[in-house]
């Protein structure tokens, strides 16, 4: 399993665990970054080890190549001295070292490619860790903002604004009702006073007229144009009739 496959598996496992256990996403992301950093440490160690092996192979290759060149010079020297057998032996040694150098050269080239691959993987992992830290900070800020918004909504919900507005409406209705009652009482009181004064005023006129009529009947004073004494019975009858009419009118009031 590759390194990134492992990282992907860890992230998926943490996400699934977060969903199933309702864990804190910030802790999950923090743990994912810790795991990636541990992988980074191991990858750096692998890169360092590969580079060390590459350098060791290079040193061995250089040594083998030096030995091959040295035995080549010895073979030439032995041949110049006329010692063909010694020259042949030197060429055998030169061939052995040359073969070792060729093997080491192939190994070195392979290690060089491996080191380059590990270096690229190391840079990619470092970039991913940096990106993960940035995303973690962004998600942390968003999570804090979401929690603050949720807390604000809960606070606003606990205020029970509808109940408060309902109380204001009820109080307003009571005030309007009290004002209407006061106005109605004032109007009724004014109407009653008007009727009482009207009754007193009308009663005063009738009483004055009735007193004047009584004075005429009693003879206390004779108004101008009074009838002779011999016609009093007829006048009394007329007055009585008029008095009865007035009484009837008063009863109808």
UniProtKB/TrEMBL annotation:
Coiled-coil regions, chain positions: 26-81, 115-188
Q: Which UniProt keywords apply?
A: Coiled coil
- Region annotation (Disordered) maps to 215-240
InterPro entries with a match to the protein in the record: PspA_VIPP1
Q: Which Pfam families is this protein grouped with?
A: PspA_IM30 (PF04012)
User: Its domain of life?
Assistant: Bacteria
Compositional bias of kind Low complexity: 223-236
| Keyword Disulfide bond attributed | no
The family assignment reads:
Belongs to the PspA/Vipp/IM30 family.
Query: Under what name is this protein listed?
Result: PspA/IM30 family protein
Origin organism is: Phormidium yuhuli AB48
What does the record give as the organism's lineage?
Bacteria, Bacillati, Cyanobacteriota, Cyanophyceae, Oscillatoriophycideae
């Amino acid at each position: 399993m590759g390194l990134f496959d492992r990282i992907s598996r860890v992230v998926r496992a943490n996400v699934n665990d977060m969903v199933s256990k309702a864990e804190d996403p910030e802790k999950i992301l923090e743990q994912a970054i810790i795991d990636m950093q541990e992988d980074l440490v191991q990858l750096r160690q692998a890169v360092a080890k590969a580079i060390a092996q590459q350098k060791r192979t290079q040193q061995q290759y250089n040594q083998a190549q030096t030995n091959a060149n040295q035995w080549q010079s010895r073979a030439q020297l032995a041949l110049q001295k006329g010692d063909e057998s010694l020259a042949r032996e030197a060429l055998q040694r030169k061939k052995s070292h040359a073969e070792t150098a060729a093997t080491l050269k192939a190994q070195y080239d392979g290690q060089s490619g491996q080191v380059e691959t590990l270096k690229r993987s190391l840079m990619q992992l470092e970039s991913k860790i940096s990106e993960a830290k940035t995303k973690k900070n962004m998600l942390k800020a968003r999570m804090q903002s979401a929690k603050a918004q949720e807390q604000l909504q809960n606070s606003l919900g606990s205020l029970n604004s509808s109940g408060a507005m309902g109380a204001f409406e009820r109080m307003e209705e009571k005030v309007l009702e009290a004002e209407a009652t006061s106005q109605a009482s004032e109007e009724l009181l004014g109407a009653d006073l008007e009727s009482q004064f009207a009754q007193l005023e009308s009663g005063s006129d009738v009483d004055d007229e009735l007193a004047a009529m009584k004075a005429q009947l009693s003879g206390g004073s004779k108004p101008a144009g009074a009838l002779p004494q011999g016609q009093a019975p007829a006048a009394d009858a007329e007055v009585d009739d008029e008095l009865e009419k007035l009484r009837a009118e008063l009863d109808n009031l």
